[in-house]
C-alpha cells in the first residue's frame, strides 16, 4: 500500500469518527468516499454495517467503477455505490464525496423550498455554492438515480437533497469535511432563529458576496489546519482509527 493510499484510509476513517462525534451520522447509513489520485475508476468508501464511531482505516473498501470490492472484508451498500460512483465519474473535482442525513441540514431540506439563508457569517461561506434538488425520487438504489443526482450537482460543492439529506464534495477530505462542519452549524443556527417566530435579519448581497470571496481565498489552508487539529483530538482520545 502506498503512503498516499494509507493516509487516505486514515483520513477517511478519521472523518467518519469525527462525523459521529458531531452527530452527523445516522445508524449505520450514509457514506463517505475518496477517489484515489490518478485513479478514475477506483475509490475508497466506508463499508455497510459498521458504526461510524468505530470506523478504522483498515475497514475502508476499495471499489472499482463496476462496484467490485477490490479490497475489504465487509459489504458495499448499494445506494453508496450508486450515488458515489456517478458523482466521482461525472465530476473529477469531487475527489471526496460526503453524504449525510445530519439533523439540522436535513431539517431545511424537508421544508418547502428549504434554503440556506444569508443570515449568519457561516451561511455566507456557501453563497452561490449550493445545488438544490427539490424532487425527492426515492431510495437511490439505481445508477440512473445516481446519475440524476450527479447531474443536479452541477458546478456546486454542496447539494441539498429534498426530504433526504445533503452532500459535500471537494478535492480533499479536509475541505469536504470542513464544509460539512460549517454547513451543519449554519443550518442549526438558522433553524433555531426560525423557531423564535421573529423576522430573520438578512445580510445584503454585496456584503454576503464579499465575505464569501474572502473566506474562499484561504478555505483550503484553513480546512487542512482544521482537519489536522481535529485529528489531533482523535489521536489523544480515540486513536483506533489508524488500524
Could you please describe the fold and organization of this structure?
There is one protein chain. The chain is an alpha+beta fold and 243 residues long. The protein has one domain: L-fuculose-1-phosphate Aldolase (3-Layer(aba) Sandwich), CATH 3.40.225. 45% of the residues lie in helices and 14% in strands. Strands 4-3-2-1-5-8-7-6 form an eight-stranded mixed beta sheet, with helices on both faces. Helix 5 links the parallel strand 6 and strand 7. Helix 1 runs parallel beside helix 6, helix 1 packs across helix 8 and helix 6 packs across helix 8. The longest helix has 23 residues. It is globular and about 50 Å long. The model has no long low-confidence stretch (mean pLDDT 96).
Keywords:
globular, 14% strand, eight-stranded mixed sheet, single chain, 243 residues, L-fuculose-1-phosphate Aldolase, 8 strands, alpha+beta
